[in-house]
Design a protein that fits this description.
heterodimer, A: seven-stranded mixed beta sheet, four-stranded antiparallel beta sheet, 0% helix, B: 109 residues, mainly beta, five-stranded antiparallel beta sheet, globular
């Protein structure tokens, strides 16, 4: 089983619909992140959380919200989806105790907004 | 602004050596990462450099020059499974990761 699990893996929805992408991890890491990836662009940070009571906006948070329900769970919501939110979304975790701070990614959630 | 530059695409031959360059301009520096990403899959960690010099890990090596804002990833004895995108990312002064767009490496037999 994957250490960082995202659901759903694929989703097609219509403009204006509310969408939630969920992420859960069994790595015991305290930090969690949501990124989106678009062709030709680098990974862009949407939101991140360093612990359950800590939520921070990334560079492209507009149109998104998050919830850190527990140390192991971090959900991303699109309140009213629009076509330019069509992208591949990745959840990632890291351990603040590690020197390198490397990220461990989920398998990705491909979202298409029609 | 902050910027990470890497070639969009490179082609190499199985068994050969390839060097993927990354130049960066960021507000501060707290380390540079290389990740590998196969098509449709998640990125996976390859290397981390925070001091100048070469870090070797099997067939892969990563080099850093902080004064030049430059890094490269060296892949030796290329295998078909090395066909992937290679992502360069820099940890800036606020400990935020700034990502390059990635270099797609195509390996030919």
């Amino acid at each position: 089983d994957a250490d960082v699990t995202q659901t759903p893996r694929n989703r097609i929805t219509k403009t204006g619909k509310r969408i939630m992408l969920e992420c859960s991890q069994t790595k015991g890491h305290d930090r969690m992140y949501w990124y989106r990836q678009d062709p030709g662009l680098g990974l862009r940070l949407i939101y991140y959380s360093f612990d359950v009571k800590d939520i921070n906006k990334g560079e492209i948070s507009d149109g998104y919200s998050v919830s850190r329900q527990a140390q192991a769970k971090f959900s991303l919501s699109l309140e009213s989806a629009i076509p330019n939110q069509t992208a591949l979304y990745f959840c990632a975790t890291s351990d603040s105790g590690r020197d390198t701070g490397e990220l461990f990614f989920g398998e990705g959630s491909r979202l298409t907004v029609l | 602004g902050q910027n990470i530059d890497q070639p969009t695409e490179m082609t190499a031959t199985e068994g050969a050596i390839v060097q993927i360059n990354c130049t960066y301009q960021t507000s501060g520096f707290n380390g540079l990462f290389w990740y590998q990403q196969h098509a449709g899959e998640a990125p996976t960690f390859l290397s981390y450099n925070v001091l100048d010099g070469l870090e070797e890990k099997g067939r892969f090596s990563s080099f850093l020059s902080r004064s030049k804002g430059y890094s490269y990833l060296l892949l030796k004895e290329l295998q078909m499974k090395d066909s992937a995108s290679y992502l360069c990312a820099v940890l800036d002064s606020n400990y935020q990761l700034i990502w390059g767009a990635g270099t797609k490496l195509i390996i030919k037999p």
